[in-house]
Structure formats: structure tokens, C-alpha cells
Design goal:
The complex is a heterodimer of chains A (83) and B (595).
Chain A lengths: L2 E4 L8 E7 L3 H9 L7 E7 L6 E5 L2 E5 L1 H4 L2 E5 L6
Antiparallel strand pairs in A: 1-6, 2-3, 2-6, 3-4, 4-5
Chain B lengths: L1 E7 L5 H9 L4 E3 L8 E8 L2 E7 L11 H12 L4 E7 L3 H12 L5 E6 L1 H6 L3 E2 L1 H8 L3 E3 L8 H14 L8 H5 L2 H15 E2 L8 H9 L5 H43 L4 H38 L1 H13 L6 H10 L3 H7 L6 H10 L6 H14 L5 H23 L10 E3 L8 H35 L12 H8 L1 H4 L6 H10 L5 H10 L3 H11 L2 H13 L4 H11 L2 H28 L3
Parallel strand pairs in B: 1-4, 1-5, 5-6, 6-8
Antiparallel strand pairs in B: 2-3, 3-4, 7-9
Helix pairs in contact in B: 3-8, 10-11, 11-14, 11-18, 12-13, 13-14, 14-25, 15-17, 16-17, 16-23, 16-24, 17-24, 18-25, 19-21, 21-22, 24-26, 25-26
The chains are: A alpha+beta (83), B alpha/beta (595).
Chain lengths: 83, 595
């Protein structure tokens, strides 16, 4: 199953691969510099309260970003690991 | 002398490396083409005397954040003989691109892989020689925190400078179009020379995060941590501050007063109550700034500051601020001055200015002294604590109103996408160095301004000579009477207006000013205050004192930190207006209700 979803809708613990990054130029550059580029693996570590920022892990880097910025990042979810 | 600039992403330990290489000899200064101060210092690399410049951290040489622009403008305007790119060895997957961007500038470049110790612990193996050959640049691994590999890095820099010709005129514009090609180059270099284990092991950092960033426990833990730091700063800072004050008082009593006794009253007054008191005012801030930055540097270096931003973002975003502003606001309740200096951790200028506009509204410990005295004089013991609590609430409201009123004008342009660096133990040496550099900065920048202000207020309250100090016959007295049409409707009479003029120097001086103005001290002064104003007038006066202009030291700090006379004027005028409106509403509202 290859589920495509915006990063802002992932649940903590979900992981997958970045399928696309939609962002205006300036934000796009910042995202690229922090490691958000197509094909990179990514996991949602946790969410802050009250629809606050997301804590995302990209390889060896941990990043916090707001829902608005995360909405433009499409993630192809990895198949759930059988328990 | 050769000039070498240090380039790197935030959280790579670039400044740690800079401090490690240069010790305490660094100074900050202005450079052509850029509007911010940059730290630089001289170091010896082989036979070359090198002027090492620490450039702001940047993610992308072609980016558009304030810091990224500063780096480009610096490189365009100031001739540089070589560049040192500092990369975090455990994050080469995303940082290597910056090395290639810098290489494309065509200047001699040395690549330093910092935090090599951390990378080794993560099981990351780097083939340095292969990476150097692939990049076409010399590479050295080191740990700036521990100092390992430092000598080798300096040797590499020396041989780089040996070989360097007078290369200049970097093809900066040409380099702009190259981002795309760079990406594939990174992929192939990584694939060939860097081995990263597929999933990093569950580190101690992760386990700590599970508690500290817990959805429900995270905020309470953060508040407790801040409270503990706040208490610690003042537990350590206040006795030191008292000590400095006692020292100044002792020197005055035992040496200066007898020494200056033969001088005429006026000259003696201006020397003792103007010049000497001004020096005392400046000196009293020194212990507080040292202790404050000692803790702030520890919080910053440990990685908690970015986590605070994560935790409080959903609340602070509504005010146009972020979690870092929250930390500074909270610290402002102790003393506004170091809190204003601390906003330097915020890289985005509009948000930094907005924080600096709100911090002076925090009820600092100096104002608390004044309110404790007045509340005790006017209110019953059972009521007084509630009055103080009400003033704290007023302070928070003033911050919220100010942030909401100005968040449109100081709208942050930066997207909230920040790195959460792994937890690191701060090193004592770097934390202490930070405290020392901040004090140097404060003394150099604020002294003259505070000094002139203290002397000016002394003159206002003592001229023309012969008039009773701070009495109705002095310039201050005239100003007090002239302001009556404005302050009268707030229940603030001439004498209280003169006290406010003193409070401009430092808020805690208000009580001392009462003693001079009323010619009474201690209980007698408290009794006279209770007789001369009712609780409505007293509360109105306290609200005005809480909100009106920041103290002289805070204004000096606002000016040097914002580098803008216009902003400083706004930071004085807005609280004045807000104070008037709040006191007017309270006083007239209470009177209208027949109280």
C-alpha cells in the first residue's frame, strides 16, 4: 500500500519518503537546506499541543515546523511494519 | 595579514570553534557592506597572522534570510584570502551542499568536520581523505568542544594560506545557477564516501525528549525549569548586586565624602550624587548580566531554547512571537536589561524588535520594590498581596496588548522551520566566556548614556542653585507643575510627578526620591503617603509607574541593540501613552463609580 499524504496529517510514529515539496521560493530553500527534498526518508516524532508545531526526523537531523509549512510536503507512507 | 572567514550552518558549533581558536581576545566590530557587528580576532596559523571573522550561521549561501544576506554582502565587500567551512560531521547528508556552494566561490577553502566525537558515537564513519579528494578541498575532522583535532586544523589552514595566491573577485552571481547540479554531486559523494547507519539508535537525547517534549508534561516542566533559573539568577545575582552597591556606598562614605568636603555644595553634589551615583547605577547591573548570561548560554547551548520555541509556539504565534521571546519576557520579570540583550538569540529582526518592545512592560524586580513599599503604606496587610498580584496581571495584559497592536507592523518574515539540535552538555568555559563578553558589550555601549542621564536628572532636581532639592522651585518642580494638566486627571500630583522623573533613571530610585521630595524616611514617609493619597490615586500611580518609559539602562540597551533611534523613540513613547491611558481609565473609572 502506497499512501500519499501531506506531512501535516501524519500521526506520531508514521514514517515514509518525501514525494514532493510545494513551497514558495524562500521557504523552499530553507526546507531544502534542512533536508526536505524529494526521496528523503522522514518520520513524524511528535506533535505539540493545540495544533502546534511538528517534530520531524530527517536522517540525522531533527526539525520543528508549523502545520502551515508542513501542509506543502507530500509524504509517501511506508507500509506499516507487521507487529 | 590574511583575512579568513568562518562559514557554517547554525548548530554546527561554529562559534564554539571560533571561541576555542581565539580565546577571549575576540572583539565585535563594524564591517563594510553589512549592518550587523561581526566578531573577529587575530590568530597565528603557521607563519601567517590571520584575522579570523565569525560570519552568522546560514543554511544556504543563496538564501534570503537576514543572516544569509549578511554573509553574501560581507563576502562581496570585504576581501577575504580564504574561507573555512564548518560542517556538523553527523549531518553531512544535508550540510555537504554548503561546502560545494562555498567551493563554487573560487576562494581557497578548508572544510572542517566539527563534532567528530558525536558522529563517531552515532556510528558514522567518514573517509576524510576520499571526501577531500572528491570535494577537491582539504578536509580536517575535529571537536571544537573538546579541542581534539584543533592543531591539525590550524596546520591545514596554514598550508592552505601558503598555497593561496591573491585570488579575488569570486564569481558569486555565476554560482547562483548551480544549485541543481550541486544536489546530484552531494548524492554521489555521500553514496561513495559517507556511511550512515539506516536507523540511528535510540539515543539518550531521544529519551530526554520523550519527557521534556511530552505533549502534556512538556509545558509544566518548561515553566518549572524557567522558574528555577529565574530564582537562581536572582538568588545568585541579588547578593552580588547588593555587594556592589554596598561597595560604592562604602567608598562614598569613607573616602569620597571626607575628600570632597572642602568643595562647594553644588560641585560636591554633582560629583557624588551625579557622577559617582551614575557609576554605581552602571556597576550594579554587572553581576546580574554575568549571572543571567551564564544561565542563558547554558540553556542555549544545551538545546533547550529551540525546544522551548517548539513547546510554546502555538501560544506565542498568536502574539506574533515565538518561544524564544517567551523565555526573554519571563527573564524580563527579573531585570529588563539582560532580557533585552538576550533577544540576540532571535535571528529574525522584526520579531526581535517586537520582543524588545514588550520586554520593558515586564514588572521587573526594581519596580517590585517600589510597589511593595507603596502597597504596604496604603493597603491593609491582607489586601496588599492581591494588589501586587493585580499589578503582575496588568503587566501581562500590557505585554499582550502591545504584541497584538504591533504584530502587524513587526510581522515576522521568517517561516517557523527550526532545527532541534541534540541535547548537549554546555561547557563551563564557553558559558563563562559568554557572560564576560556580554558585560564588556554592556559597559562599552551603555555607560555614557546612563551616566549622562543620571547627571541630567540630578541637575534638573538641583537647579537653579539655592532651591530645595527636588522642591517646587527646581526645574524638576516646574516640569511637575507644567505636567499637571496631563497627570492631574490620573490622580498624580506635582510631587509624585517629580518622583516619576527620578524613576526614569532607575525605577527603584522612586522610593529614594519620595524621601528627598517629602523630606521624610521609612515609617514617617509611609504615613505621609497614606495621608496624601487614597487607594485609588496610589493604585493609579503604581499602574503608571509599572508601564511608563523603561528605565535609563533599559533605554540605553534598547538603543544599542536595535541600532535605531526611531525604534528607541517608539519604545519610549508607546509605553508612556499606554501608561497614561491605563491610569486614566482606572482613576476616572473608579472616581465615576464614586470610589
Amino acid at each position: 500500500m502506497n499512501d500519499l499524504r501531506p506531512l501535516s496529517e501524519l500521526n506520531p510514529g508514521d514514517h515514509g519518503v518525501i514525494a514532493a515539496v510545494h513551497a514558495p521560493e524562500e521557504l523552499g530553500k530553507r526546507l531544502t537546506a534542512l533536508g526536505f527534498s524529494t526521496g528523503r526518508p522522514l518520520a513524524l516524532v511528535r506533535r505539540a499541543l493545540l495544533r502546534g508545531p511538528l517534530h520531524v526526523r530527517l536522517g540525522t537531523t531533527d526539525v520543528a515546523l508549523r502545520m502551515a509549512e508542513a501542509a506543502g510536503i507530500q509524504v509517501r507512507l511506508a507500509a506499516p511494519v507487521p507487529a | 595579514m590574511k583575512r579568513v572567514a568562518l562559514v557554517g550552518m547554525p548548530n554546527t558549533g561554529k562559534s564554539t570553534l571560533f571561541n576555542r581558536l581565539t580565546g577571549a581576545s575576540a572583539r565585535t566590530g563594524n564591517w563594510p557592506g553589512v549592518t550587523v557587528e561581526l566578531a573577529s580576532a587575530r590568530v597565528l596559523a603557521g607563519r601567517h597572522m590571520v584575522e579570523l571573522v565569525d560570519l552568522p550561521g546560514l543554511y544556504d549561501l543563496h538564501g534570503f534570510s537576514d543572516d544569509e544576506r549578511v554573509v553574501r554582502h560581507f563576502l562581496e565587500a570585504a576581501p577575504v584570502d580564504a574561507l573555512v567551512v564548518v560542517l556538523n560531521a553527523s549531518q553531512l547528508d544535508r550540510q555537504l551542499a554548503l561546502a560545494l556552494q562555498v567551493k563554487a566561490l573560487g576562494l581557497p577553502t578548508l572544510v572542517l568536520l566539527n563534532m567528530a566525537d558525536e558522529a563517531r558515537r552515532h556510528g558514522i564513519r567518514i573517509d576524510e581523505a576520499g571526501l577531500a579528494a572528491g570535494l577537491g578541498l582539504p578536509v580536517a575532522a575535529l571537536s571544537a568542544k573538546l579541542g581534539t583535532g584543533q592543531a591539525e586544523a590550524v596546520r591545514r589552514l596554514a598550508s592552505l594560506l601558503d598555497a593561496a595566491g591573491p585570488a579575488r573577485d569570486a564569481a558569486l552571481r555565476e554560482a547562483l545557477a548551480e544549485d541543481h547540479r550541486r544536489e546530484s554531486a552531494v548524492e554521489s559523494l555521500l553514496a561513495r564516501h559517507v556511511h550512515v547507519p539506516p536507523r540511528l539508535s535510540d539515543t539518550a537525547s531521544d529519551r530526554l525528549d520523550r519527557v521534556v517534549l511530552h505533549p502534556w508534561l512538556g509545558l509544566p516542566i518548561f515553566f518549572l525549569a524557567m522558574l528555577a533559573i529565574f530564582q537562581a539568577v536572582f538568588l545568585l545575582g541579588s547578593p552580588l548586586q547588593d555587594g556592589v552597591e554596598a561597595l560604592f556606598e562604602g567608598v562614598r562614605k569613607s573616602a569620597l565624602e571626607p575628600l570632597l568636603a572642602p568643595l562647594p555644595d553644588f560641585t560636591r553634589g554633582i560629583l557624588l550624587d551625579g557622577v559617582w551615583a551614575g557609576m554605581g547605577t552602571v556597576a550594579a547591573f554587572v553581576p546580574l548580566i554575568v549571572v543571567f548570561f551564564f544561565f542563558l548560554a547554558a540553556v542555549e547551548d544545551s538545546g533547550y531554547l529551540s525546544r522551548a520555541a517548539f513547546l510554546t509556539d502555538s501560544l506565542m504565534a498568536r502574539l506574533g512571537l515565538d518561544g524564544r521571546a517567551f523565555v526573554m519576557l519571563l527573564m524580563g520579570f527579573g531585570c529588563n536589561v539582560p532580557a533585552l540583550m538576550g533577544t540576540r538569540v532571535m535571528r529574525d529582526r522584526p520579531m526581535r524588535l517586537l520582543s524588545m518592545l514588550t520586554i520593558p512592560l515586564s514588572l521587573c524586580s526594581a519596580r517590585l520594590q517600589v510597589f511593595v513599599f507603596i502597597a504596604a503604606a496604603i493597603f491593609r496587610p491582607a489586601v496588599a498581596p492581591w494588589v501586587l498580584f493585580g499589578l503582575y496581571v496588568t503587566s501581562f495584559l500590557a505585554v499582550i496588548v502591545t504584541a497584538l497592536a504591533f504584530k502587524g507592523r513587526f510581522a515576522s518574515r521568517e517561516p517557523f522551520v527550526i532545527e532541534l539540535p541534540p541535547w548537549r552538555a554546555p561547557t563551563l568555559r564557553l558559558v563563562a566566556l559568554r557572560g564576560w563578553l556580554e558585560v564588556k558589550h554592556f559597559l562599552r555601549r551603555a555607560t555614557t548614556f546612563i551616566f549622562v542621564g543620571v547627571v541630567a536628572v540630578w541637575l534638573l532636581t538641583h537647579l537653579p542653585s539655592g532651591a530645595a532639592p527636588a522642591g517646587p522651585g527646581t526645574i524638576a518642580g516646574w516640569i511637575g507643575s507644567a505636567l499637571q494638566p496631563v497627570l492631574g486627571p490620573l490622580g498624580i500630583d506635582e510631587r509624585l510627578a517629580v518622583a516619576l522623573l527620578f524613576g526614569f533613571v532607575a525605577k527603584e530610585v522612586v522610593i529614594g526620591a519620595f524621601a528627598v521630595i517629602y523630606g521624610l524616611e521609612g515609617d514617617a514617609l509611609a504615613g505621609e503617603l497614606a495621608r496624601s493619597m487614597d487607594w485609588v490615586a496610589a493604585t493609579s500611580f503604581m499602574i503608571f509607574t509599572l508601564v511608563y518609559t523603561p528605565c535609563l539602562s533599559a533605554i540605553a540597551t534598547l538603543r544599542t541593540e536595535s541600532r535605531s533611534a526611531g525604534f528607541t523613540a517608539l519604545a519610549i513613547a508607546w509605553p508612556l501613552g499606554l501608561a497614561w491611558a491605563a491610569s486614566f481609565a482606572f482613576y476616572q473609572g473608579m472616581r465615576a463609580m464614586g470610589l
